């Protein structure tokens, strides 16, 4: 039950002004959720209680909050907030707990860490953190990893969930992950291709769509290549090109064919800045294998008419500067790296890399950590896992990291459940005995969630500890559950900001119940583990040091008061402009010093699944897989407007306007006798869910979308009633390490009466 507090000047039941009882106060802070945004929130409080939330209303461009940020009040005061440390009473997953004291909880967790580390070795501790809200001081990935590094190390997980395919492509083609131009550079583009990219939904930098609007007003042509007609497409695009999931590399390569065969490639640019164009050209024109990669070749693969491919290619080649934005959604697939490499090759062929208004076919979203081109700050110390330090993996060379995922205590993120279930017998060097989970929606967010549930129930896993804010689907499996505060209950600095402003996150209210931040929890554990060096600085000291390292902020207290600091705007940042302007003095950090269309480091990997030039490779669970006989629909699992992953799922306001459904085309619905709103089964061999369908021609036939992040809610037969996309996904990764969230086959049918 949510109480609505009286707005200003409202009279109470006695006819007295509420203002005369106590004054409402507005405090600015920054919402920085797991969406890539950093938006201004004006939070009103009265008597220590949040009464309402508005957004930045200062000068343009405003850092406007979305509905999620504005409904945070329902999140903070949610009846399922965890308020006390809990100890499991029933079976794992049953959700029965008893309240214990913080001393009891922290003593137990510290004792278990010591016991498992000493009896089985640190590799038997699997730590998985993520971010929750993105901030420097309290994010699980910052504080818990640091503690466990000091405590002797742990099995850590590799594979960026978001964009390992893109990271692989960038590291092998450019030698760096710093490939992003700033969004304000859009106004310099004559054309923008949004390839599998929907920033009106997924944000990926506050104001991204504001800059798209500026570009459009200046006459920029905007195209969307996506199986769905997204909100961004509806609002901004001149043309929608629906494409079959997982086939993007084929279309990009066919566009390269049109450009090269028509003599429209930028020869001087290719000679000067790229390496290995000839090998790619031979493949594209069919000189290598006798198959010219024409639009007619790509049409049956992609479902895109040859004419559309040809016209788009010519338009792109002639519209320089043109920005091809390579969304990371298509890259989270079984051939993700080929798509990203092909997109970069196309940008190079048209000479669009390193020029204003062009693009490096940049992965649509930058890495979540500093340094960004615009946000400059001191960064709190991060430590290296000593298990990996003993034989360090080349963290800056991800493509090679994949060749020893089992070797250094590192697992790919898709292998967690297998590692717990099989341990040494599955080839991993240890049996996992302790699972430490913080700031991550485990197992809801993880591929093939049913396998994770099985893993969490397994008796060989001796202890599970979780930091959480709510009784999430995963929290029900914890042995000890530690209640966490929200970002409105502590001071911090917002982490995402590839935009041009800085966000201070003010503590607005006292932590609810006995909840603590992950930092406070780790301080308590450090004391018990005998690690005084962990607590050598207070949180306030760390934040002040960060600000001291920032050339754009003169005074910490003013920054704190502002909540959102907007420094003088600088010229747009254009990735690789130095390399293009003066290549002799600024080589690309690749073996050849150039953009490697033919990658030497891939060639050295000598893996037939990853060719040194970008190629289209048909993958498993595509339309031609024999599984398509039983499961003819391709599933994509997009990021959802009403949630940041699994976060905000429990906010009633958001649920009301954005319910979880499976999106299906009218052609596919008709074949199955489905009407809009019908309750349907969505299933494959890995799992099944029963949810309502939304019938719409905003998705192409042959494809369905179950937006990711809804909470797993199995009924007594194990059928998910919540619509958790990972009931259906496969726990597999592409040869380059991409998580395959968008490669899966399913069938949809009307649910039987007893299932509804
Ligand atoms: N509201 C909200 N915002 C978020 C998040 C969130 O959960 N909610 N999550 C944040 C995080 S951590 C990340 S990593 C990003 C993710 O951001 P993205 O990966 O960009 O988001 P998605 O919605 O998964 O995919 C983008 C688009 O790709 C399309 N698509 C899917 N498969 C294919 C394909 O094979 N080919 C083509 N051409 N298109 C395809 C989808 O229809 C969708 O419109 O978003 C961030 N922002
Ligand atoms: N099928 C499918 N699965 C996907 C994706 C997909 O596209 N499709 N996308 C993947 C991607 S790109 C990503 S990045 C991952 C994201 O996966 P996660 O990072 O695991 O997702 P979140 O839902 O953000 O999980 C954050 C959790 O931390 C909690 N939390 C929030 N703030 C705090 C805090 O201050 N302290 C603590 N201790 N806890 C807090 C929240 O309650 C929530 O349970 O999901 C991946 N999973
Ligand atoms: S949820 Fe994301 S987009 Fe929405 S207000 Fe918060 S940071 Fe901004
Ligand atoms: Mo992500």
Task: Provide tags for this entry.
single chain; 756 residues; alpha/beta; Rossmann fold; Dimethylsulfoxide Reductase, domain 2; Barwin-like endoglucanases; 3 domains; six-stranded mixed β-sheet; 26 strands; 28% helix; globular; disordered N terminus; binds ligand MGD; binds iron/sulfur cluster; binds molybdenum atom
Outline the secondary-structure elements.
Blueprint: H1 18-21, E1 25-31, E2 39-46, E3 49-55, H2 67-70, H3 72-76, E4 86-88, E5 97-99, H4 102-120, E6 125-129, H5 140-150, E7 156-158, H6 164-173, E8 191-195, H7 199-202, H8 208-217, E9 221-225, H9 231-236, E10 239-241, H10 248-261, H11 267-273, E11 274-275, H12 277-285, H13 295-302, H14 306-318, E12 322-326, H15 336-349, H16 386-389, H17 398-401, E13 410-412, H18 416-422, E14 434-438, H19 449-457, E15 463-468, E16 480-483, E17 492-493, E18 502-505, H20 518-528, H21 539-548, H22 556-562, E19 564-565, H23 577-581, E20 595-596, H24 600-605, E21 633-636, H25 652-657, E22 662-664, H26 666-671, E23 679-684, E24 687-695, E25 703-705, E26 745-750
Parallel strand pairs: 6-14, 7-13, 8-9, 8-12, 9-10, 11-20, 14-15, 15-16, 21-25, 22-24
Antiparallel strand pairs: 1-2, 2-3, 4-5, 4-16, 17-18, 18-19, 21-26, 23-24, 23-26
Helix pairs in contact: 4-20, 5-20, 6-15, 10-13, 10-14, 10-15, 13-14, 18-19
This protein binds ligand MGD (2 copies), iron/sulfur cluster and molybdenum atom.
What would you note in describing this structure?
The protein is an alpha/beta fold. It has three domains: about 85-160 and about 375-485 and about 515-550, Rossmann fold, CATH 3.40.50.740; about 165-360, Dimethylsulfoxide Reductase, domain 2, CATH 3.40.228; about 625-755, Barwin-like endoglucanases (Beta Barrel). The protein has a six-stranded mixed β-sheet, covered by helices on one side. α5 runs parallel beside α20 (about 520-530), α10 runs antiparallel to α13 (about 295-300) and α10 (about 250-260) runs parallel beside α15 (about 335-350). It is globular. Mean pLDDT is about 90; it is low at about 1-5, about 390-400 and about 400-410. It binds ligand MGD (2 copies), iron/sulfur cluster (SF4) and molybdenum atom.
């Amino acid at each position: 039950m949510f109480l609505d507090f009286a707005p200003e000047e409202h009279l109470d039941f006695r006819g007295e002004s509420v203002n005369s009882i106590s004054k409402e106060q507005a405090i600015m802070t920054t919402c920085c959720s797991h969406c890539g945004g950093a938006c201004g929130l004006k939070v009103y409080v009265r008597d220590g209680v949040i009464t309402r939330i508005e957004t930045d209303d200062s000068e343009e461009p405003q850092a406007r909050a979305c509905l999620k940020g504005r409904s945070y009040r329902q999140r903070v005061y949610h009846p399922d907030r965890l308020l006390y440390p809990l100890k499991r009473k029933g079976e794992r997953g049953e959700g029965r707990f008893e309240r214990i004291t913080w001393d009891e909880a922290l003593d137990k967790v510290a004792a278990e860490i010591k016991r498992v580390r000493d009896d089985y070795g640190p590799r038997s501790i699997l730590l998985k953190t993520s971010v929750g809200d993105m901030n420097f001081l309290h994010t699980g990935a910052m504080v818990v990893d640091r503690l466990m590094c000091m405590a002797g190390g742990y099995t850590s997980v590799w594979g960026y969930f978001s964009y390992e395919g893109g990271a692989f492509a960038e590291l092998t083609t450019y030698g760096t992950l710093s490939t992003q131009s700033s969004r304000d550079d859009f106004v310099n583009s004559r054309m923008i291709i949004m390839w599998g990219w929907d920033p009106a939904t997924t944000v990926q930098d506050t104001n991204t769509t504001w800059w798209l609007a500026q570009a459009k007003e200046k006459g920029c042509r905007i195209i969307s290549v996506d199986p769905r007609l997204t909100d961004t497409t509806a609002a901004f695009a001149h043309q929608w090109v629906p494409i079959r999931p997982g086939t993007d590399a084929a279309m990009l390569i066919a566009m390269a064919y049109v450009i090269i065969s028509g003599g429209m490639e930028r020869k001087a640019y290719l000679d000067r800045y790229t390496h290995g164009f000839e090998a790619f050209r031979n493949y594209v024109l069919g000189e290598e294998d006798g198959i010219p990669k024409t639009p007619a070749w790509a049409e049956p693969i992609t479902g895109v008419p040859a004419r559309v491919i040809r016209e788009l290619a010519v338009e792109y080649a002639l519209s320089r500067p043109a920005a091809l934005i390579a969304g990371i959604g298509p890259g989270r697939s079984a051939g993700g790296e080929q798509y990203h490499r092909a997109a970069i090759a196309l940008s190079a062929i048209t000479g669009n890399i390193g020029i204003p208004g062009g693009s490096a076919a940049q992965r649509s979203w930058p890495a979540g950590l500093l340094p960004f081109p615009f946000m400059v700050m001191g960064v709190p110390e991060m430590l290296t896992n000593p298990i990996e330090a003993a034989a360090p993996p080349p963290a800056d060379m991800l493509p090679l990291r994949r060749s020893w995922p089992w070797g250094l205590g590192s697992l790919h993120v898709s292998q967690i459940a297998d590692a717990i279930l099989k341990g040494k017998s599955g080839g991993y060097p240890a049996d996992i005995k302790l699972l430490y989970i913080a700031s991550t929606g485990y197992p809801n967010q993880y591929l093939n969630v049913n396998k994770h549930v099985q893993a969490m129930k397994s008796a060989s896993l001796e202890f599970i500890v979780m930091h959480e804010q709510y009784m999430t689907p995963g929290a029900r499996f914890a042995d000890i559950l530690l209640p966490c505060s929200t970002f409105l209950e502590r001071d911090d600095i917002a982490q995402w900001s590839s935009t041009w402003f800085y966000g201070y996150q003010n503590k607005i209210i006292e932590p609810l119940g006995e909840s603590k931040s992950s930092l406070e929890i780790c301080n308590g554990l450090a004391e018990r583990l005998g690690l005084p060096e962990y607590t050598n600085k207070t949180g306030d000291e760390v934040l002040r040091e960060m600000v001291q390292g920032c050339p754009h902020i003169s005074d910490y207290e003013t920054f704190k008061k502002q909540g959102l600091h907007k420094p003088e705007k600088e010229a747009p940042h254009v990735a690789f402009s130095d390399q293009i302007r003066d290549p002799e003095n600024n080589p690309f950090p690749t073996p050849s010093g150039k953009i490697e269309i033919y990658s030497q480091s891939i060639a050295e990997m000598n893996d037939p699944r990853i060719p040194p030039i970008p190629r289209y490779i048909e993958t498993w669970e595509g339309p031609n897989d024999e599984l398509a006989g039983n499961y003819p629909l391709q599933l994509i699992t997009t990021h959802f407007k009403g949630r940041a992953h699994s976060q905000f799922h429990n906010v009633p306001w958001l649920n009301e306007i954005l319910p979880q459904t499976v999106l299906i085309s009218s052609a596919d619905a008709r074949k199955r006798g489905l009407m809009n709103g019908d309750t349907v089964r969505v299933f494959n061999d890995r799992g099944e869910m029963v949810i309502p369908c939304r019938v719409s021609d905003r998705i192409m036939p042959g494809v369905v979308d179950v937006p990711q992040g809804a909470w797993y809610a199995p009924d007594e037969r194990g059928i998910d009633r919540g619509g958790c996309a990972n009931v259906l996904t496969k726990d597999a990764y592409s040869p380059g390490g991409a998580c395959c969230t968008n490669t899966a086959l399913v069938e949809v049918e009307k649910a039987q009466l007893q299932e509804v």
